Amino acid sequence: MTEAVNHHAEQAINIIDYADLILEYLRQLKVEYVFGVPGGAIEPLFNALARSERRGGPKVIIARHECGAAFMADGYTRETGRLGVVCSTTGPGATNLITGVASASVDKVPMLVITAQTALPKFGKRALQDSSETAIDTVGIFRNCTKFNALVSHEQQLESKLISALMNATQSPKGPVHLSIPSDILRAPYGHENPNVQVNYLMQRPSLEDLSAVENLMELILAVDKVVIFVGHGCGRAYRQIEELAETINAPFVSGPMGKRWVNEKHPLYRGVFGYAGHETAKELFNNPDIELILVFGASITEMGIGSLPGHVLNEKLVHIDSSVESFSRSPMAKLHVCGHLDGVVNRLLAKINQQSWRRTWQGLEIDCHKNSLGGYTEIKEEEKCTSDATPVKPQRLMAYLSNYLPLDTRIFVDTGNIWAWATHYLAFAANSGLYRVSMGFGSMAWSIGAVIGSAFASPDKPHICLAGDGAWLMSSHEIGVAVLHKLPIVFVVLNDSAYGMIRFGQQLSHAESIGWQLNKVDFAALAKAQGAKGIIIEAPGQLDELDLSALFKSDGPTLLDVRIDPEEIPPMMARVKNLQADLTSDVDNQSTLGYK
């Protein structure tokens, strides 16, 4: 009898349910964490996560809000390159995720979103938090911000829909996918000990290039001397090769605001950011009539970046090189489109150029440039404020301090708001391996707060810093508790001016009514201490110089720097303000206001 009982218990241990199956697939993909908030309908998945953690598989990280959990999954993906995973219960848990998922969609961040549903027999019967199609239809809500979106209406659908979702998330263009799973299906027995598919093979992406287009591009490069390179946000596979290409053909290069992460901003050939909060040296470069060819790598042609170039330049000189055909919809009249994985394309170009180098060199453009106080060769506005000892602290001074003192391996997360402009223009970082991280597609406030935490879970031994305005911090300051609980030594920097600064100065620069931007004065250092973090108030530049950043990055928990900045300093955002008024101007005027002329 005893042997029979033991045999039955052993069999029970090997029987897994569908929630366990999901985590087994994630384990195959080397996903370490699932970010989320618990709830009744999602409980079967949390039971499986508890079992998974005991086996050394994916474990759960509890956020303070579902949107913060989605931002954490986003940050985890940016650090590791692996799939980000977020889960929530049904009803408001699912709808709370929307902003984080939409942000990932616009930035093409692969993410698996799992939301629960009430049990199938309760559909349409006014059960608590019913999210079926006859109630608050969460599948319908997620439709326009995911690449794959499905309700699992029968347990035998789950495995195939999960595999389809995983493949869609990781194939170009990448993005979030959503599965809505009733709680009774999550706890239903799978019936097998192991999954039917080894999913890693299906996730592989072969390197493919349009060889004919690459040959045409090579002929164009060989026929000219004066080339300019634009580095977009999608250059993660080829940032080293692109820099080598620039050096080989003596091509000055610029970046978009999000492309900053893939360039060494202190490189002698780098001329700054073109577009939002950009640099005069970048604008002057594109104004040079001697340019013969513009190579645009991994970029969407948008108003924040190179999309503000005049039409004749886009059509006659621009070559758009991207891994997704979808990106070419914004540059239909370009001189040439080249589709393929960027590393493969640039490696072919370098190989051909090296074969030709014995008989020619590229003269490049003659440009006068001088080293600035940030260590780069871009022209920056009001450079004297980068060394100002005035109080309150000039934002330019804060950015210059970070430019000079952040370790080269620091993961920098920049939030939405005035900090976009300050960091884009004044924060010069020499690392070109994607460590400068910003989400400028959807522009979600508080993105950086969750994202830096997700990244720190992946690499807790690397320095992490989050730069946010006080408006964003008030929206999501509670997430610092996650960093406290897990002893993550993140440095959070809050630019404190008691205002929605982007709103305030946007209204001022556009001569609109001044309304709705005032915030109450908050002691953010005290707020951080109340949650168990370190809190330091910075009221004068000398206090910045006294900081020991290395020690803060190695402490046993997060630190918040409450930096009291000069509230009267206007960020370099005039181009964005004028672009918002573009519908009131002619095309010619619009080109001028965007900073091209």
Ranges where pLDDT stays below 50 over 5 or more residues in a row are 1-13, 583-597
What's the average pLDDT? 89
> Mind telling me which CATH architecture of the largest domain this is?
3-Layer(aba) Sandwich
Number of domains: 3
Helix coverage percent of residues? 25-40%
Main pleated-sheet profile:
6 strands, parallel
What structural class is derived from the secondary structure elements? alpha/beta
What is the global morphology?
A: globular
Which CATH class of the largest domain applies here? Alpha Beta
Number of strands: 18
Rg measurement, Å: 25 Å
User: β content, as a range?
Assistant: 5-15%
Q: How many separate helices? A: 26
Please give a structural write-up.
- With 597 residues, the chain is of the alpha/beta class.
- The protein contains 26 helices and 18 strands.
- A six-stranded parallel β-sheet has the order 2-1-3-4-6-5, sandwiched between helices.
- It is globular.
- The protein starts with a helix and ends with a helix.
